[in-house]
Specification:
Shape: elongated
Number of helices: 10
Subcellular location: Cell membrane
Protein name: ABC transporter permease
Membrane topology: Multi-pass membrane protein
Mean pLDDT: 85
Helix content: over 70%
Structural class: mainly alpha
Keywords: Cell membrane, Membrane, Transmembrane, Transmembrane helix, Transport
Order of helices and strands: HHHHHHHHHH
Strand content: under 5%
Distance between the termini: 18 Å
Organism: Leucobacter coleopterorum
Radius of gyration: 22 Å
Largest sheet: none
Length: 270
């Protein structure tokens, strides 16, 4: 794995692992309740009591950063998980059946591909109201074609391989061949595409939260912290916006680097 990622990739993996570990252990390592206000500490700078200072309500920024990273990682992960499962299934169905089925699925994917994922999220919010689950489902719809189009191309190549024809002549069903023969061989491409898309999902979810349409206060979320941090900047406390923005940048950078390395290795194998 180290050779596949390279030096920069390993650094990115370490950074991402540290962030994931810190977010996972937030209930045990965070010094305060993320929603507990202390008006006496409002907009205070870094100190022994508050490592990164406090926000306008006196909530500890370090604590909210840890808890905010949990949602910032969990939401996009759910988006890509749903999009990858649905997109891969559609790709396998299209690649195996060809003809009308392939044409119909490709047409639907083209329509979805023409609309940015964040637009689906905004439409979902407009219909069902601001909520994390609503945004996740909306973004998932937008990310399905990114996975499906790549996997479909790989599955089409595998469908013409001799081992597939041999399995068909042995009487195996199309579903069985697709799941047991083709899917394992396109799995590296599926994983690389999923990881590459994850960074974009982090940005989209943070953008929706920044607009106030995703995670709702007082829940800690990095995108929401950047938004609330803008008001604190005007009051002389820029750390909330800086810390949350830097955390988003590190998460997206590490995921993007890992995804690029995986995609490069997948192309070299092919």
């Amino acid at each position: 794995m180290g050779r596949k990622l390279g030096v920069v990739g390993i650094i990115a993996a370490v950074v991402l692992a540290v962030i994931v570990l810190a977010a996972t252990l937030a209930p045990w390592i965070a010094p305060y309740d993320p929603d507990y206000p202390d008006l006496f500490a409002a907009l205070s700078g870094p100190s022994a009591e508050h490592l990164l200072g406090a926000d306008a309500l006196g909530r500890d920024l370090f604590t909210r950063l840890l808890y905010g990273a949990r949602i910032t990682l969990l939401g996009p992960t759910l988006v890509i998980l749903i999009a990858t499962v649905v997109g891969t299934l559609l790709a396998l169905i299209a690649a195996w059946n060809r003809g009308f089925v392939d044409t119909a699925i490709s047409w639907v994917l083209d329509v979805l591909f023409s609309v940015p994922g964040i637009v689906f999220a905004l439409i979902a919010v407009a219909i069902f109201g601001p909520d994390l689950l609503v945004v996740v489902i909306g973004l998932s719809i937008g990310y399905i074609p990114y996975v499906a189009r790549v996997v479909r191309g790989a599955a089409l190549r595998e469908r013409g391989m001799p081992y597939v024809q041999a399995a068909w002549l042995q009487g195996q069903s199309g579903i069985g061949i697709s799941l047991r023969q083709i899917l394992p061989n396109v799995q590296p491409i599926v994983v690389a595409q999923a990881v590459s898309s994850l960074g974009f999902a982090v940005i989209d979810l943070a953008a929706v939260s920044f607009l106030g349409l995703g995670v709702q206060p007082p829940t800690a979320d990095l995108g929401l912290m950047v938004k609330s941090g803008f008001d604190s900047v005007l009051r002389g406390q820029p750390l909330e916006a800086i810390a949350a923005g830097l955390a988003i940048v590190l998460i997206v950078w590490s995921i993007t680097v890992i995804g690029d390395r995986l995609a490069s290795n997948t192309r070299s194998i092919r």
